[in-house]
């Protein structure tokens, strides 16, 4: 049928009905408790939905988080390891220091029954050449009677030679050789007596004289350290 003249009342009513049926863009919808979980409150524009990150985005988000945390921890662990290696390397002794840590002494000039005192790492050391009678006397000692129980055999590498630190185990004094009640050493500071194996026999000292690290080089030399 022919369209009505736009200026007539009938045409105006028809236009008003058409506008009323058309959805109005940009008008906010009323709040609803059952809103679409994927919608954005205050906007009907869904053009950027795919670019938004939600807590429920799935395995890809978790994998990225684990990768980031793992990489960070690896970097920290590597840095700590490198620091430890550098610290230990700086604490290692140089060749010059190691050379001073050992000392060599000749044995040819020491007579049977004689004790000499040498210096090693700034500390005194006794080297005693024992007679067969001295060796037999120390072997015969009942270790059950000793305060610090050690046999003579475990304190020497060669029964003829006794090598001990010349430092009393009480307060660090230097004992006197060939003195005391047991024919070994006597500390005059507080009266400690050691036998011919350097074992404490009487007095306040709690332990036997210390055995330093040493080794023999042939029959004529001993190396301390």
Structure notes:
- The chain has helices at 9-21, 59-91, 95-101, 132-139, and strands at residues 103-106, 115-120, 123-129, 161-165, 176-177, 183-187, 192-195, 200-202, 214-217, 221-224.
- By secondary structure, the protein is an alpha+beta fold.
- It contains four helices and ten strands, in the order αααβββαβββββββ.
- The longest helix has 33 residues, at 59-91.
Low-confidence residue ranges: none
Describe the global form: rod-shaped
* SSE pattern, N- to C-terminal: HHHEEEHEEEEEEE
Q: How big a fraction of the residues is strand?
A: 15-25%
Please report the distance between the alpha carbons of the first and last residues. Answer: 123 Å
| DSSP E strands, number | 10
The proportion of residues forming helix, as a percent range, comes to 25-40%
Largest sheet: 4 strands, antiparallel
Total helices: the number is: 4
Radius of gyration: 48 Å
Mean pLDDT value: 80
Taking strands numbered 1, 2, ... along the chain, how are they ordered across the largest sheet?
5-6-7-8
Label the structural class. Answer: alpha+beta
């Amino acid at each position: 049928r022919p369209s009505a003249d736009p200026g007539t009342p009938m045409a105006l009513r028809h236009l008003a009905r058409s506008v009323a049926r058309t959805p109005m863009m940009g008008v906010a919808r009323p709040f609803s408790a059952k809103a679409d979980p994927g919608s954005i409150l205050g906007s009907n524009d869904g053009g950027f939905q795919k670019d938004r990150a939600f807590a429920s985005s799935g395995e890809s988000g978790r994998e990225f988080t684990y990768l980031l945390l793992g990489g960070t921890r690896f970097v920290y662990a590597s840095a700590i390891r490198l620091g430890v290696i550098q610290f230990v390397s700086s604490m290692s002794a140089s060749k010059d220091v190691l050379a001073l840590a050992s000392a060599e002494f000749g044995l040819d000039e020491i007579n049977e029954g004689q004790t000499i005192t040498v210096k090693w790492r700034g500390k005194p050391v006794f080297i005693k050449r024992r007679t067969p009678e001295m060796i037999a006397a120390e072997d015969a000692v009942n270790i059950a009677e000793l305060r610090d129980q050690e046999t003579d055999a475990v304190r020497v590498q060669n029964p003829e030679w006794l090598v001990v630190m010349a430092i009393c185990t009480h307060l660090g004094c230097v004992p006197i050789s060939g003195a005391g009640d047991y024919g070994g050493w006597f500390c005059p500071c507080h009266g400690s007596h050691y036998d011919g194996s350097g074992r404490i026999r009487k007095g306040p000292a709690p332990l036997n004289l210390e055995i330093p690290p040493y080794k023999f080089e042939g029959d004529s030399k001993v190396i301390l350290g």
